[in-house]
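Narrative of activities, Objective 1.

The group set out to show that a structural description can be obtained from nothing but a protein's sequence at a throughput compatible with the screening campaign. Below is one input-output pair from the validation batch, recorded exactly as produced.
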Amino acid sequence: MKLQIIGDPVLHSKSPVIQGAMLGALGLDIPYTPHVVRRGELPQYLAWARDSGVSGFNATMPHKEDLLPLLDHIDPAARAMGAVNTVCLRDGKWVGFNTDGAGAAAALRDSLGIDPAGMTVTLLGAGGAAKAVALALAASRAERVFVCNRTVERAQTLCAQDPLGRLAPAEFDPETLVRCAARSRLLVNCTNLGMAGCPHQFADFSFLDALPPGAGVFDLIYHPARTELLSQAKRRGLKTLNGLPMLVNQAVLALERFLNRPLDRKAMAAVAAGALEDNPAAF
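Output recorded for this entry:
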């Protein structure tokens, strides 16, 4: 049995540290390694993985959506999100799951003490991760989630996939961001603005001033550990959270899928978090 994470880039991923620690804590000698797969190479990778004894893998950018038509079966929750991040080989069939949304909900609950029920949320971005988080927020009974994206048509497409009607598309211009933030108790960044290696940054952070006191700012980015968005939010006295708790929680859920059995999620999350603390090079 072999496990991997695929993407491009992927060699910086913390998943091998996290999954390796959890597998070790369970007494399992199962390798988990990164494997670079470029866009367009998924069909070749799936064939190679099957022949090479890979029984499961995580997927990161740019593959979460591109995998959908290539898999034999997709979990209903992942199909609703339109993206997969966990794939298992079961009875010779590739089966796709998505643990991002549940991982984000757990991170908000456990690390920020935030229950989205009844909240208005501003969410930035409309890609695969944004879709998973937005639908998870809707399922958690958030009153309204403003999905702000530079291409508003993509936000409209995402919002149309919410059967509960809690998602609302919005533009990404400064005035719209301020207007949405003023109504929100939580802001979630699902874009790559501020990510290490990304040449782009937010044009300004005035929308943070519109958030009410005590609001939360959740940035899915975890490299760097504190983005400029989180630094600016902290200066304003807002609650902040980076993407590491989400990464840890979705990893625990992914491992349950790989092993096809339930785990003590809190214990595994503690193991994963400890592994990151003990391996600063992973950051």
